[in-house]
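tool_call: predict_structure(chain=1)
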Amino acid sequence: MHEWALAESIVTATVEEARKEKLKTITQVTIYIGELQQIEKEIFLFALTELSKSQKPPIQKDAFVIKTDKSTLSCKNCGEHWKYSDMKKKLNKTEAESIHFIPEIVFVHARCPQCGSPDFEITTGRGVTLSSIKGVR
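tool_result:
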């Protein structure tokens, strides 16, 4: 489960940054998950909570705030912009599952809805971003 690996990276980065900022307690950690990443939020939050136990500085149990960054795609051929959520409705289960595990597979299954070109880029909603860390000094 890649949720655990991502959670471990987030916890490690959070603790390192909190130490740099000389925080005694971490009270809030805001994380944006790109829609294209398709992370199971419940599993991710559970992993974050479990991995944050016994960290120094301590991370409060309810510190994690997870937000979704909607994915948009942009055609390099005609300039059309579209939402991944609209495109996802047209995918079969196998295609959607493959994108879940390897988001770059979207380039195999997607085409511009305007011109049909396979030449597009992901403009928003890719990856996991540690947005902010709040705490007590």
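agent: Residues 5 and 47 are 9 Å apart (CA to CA). Proceeding to next step.
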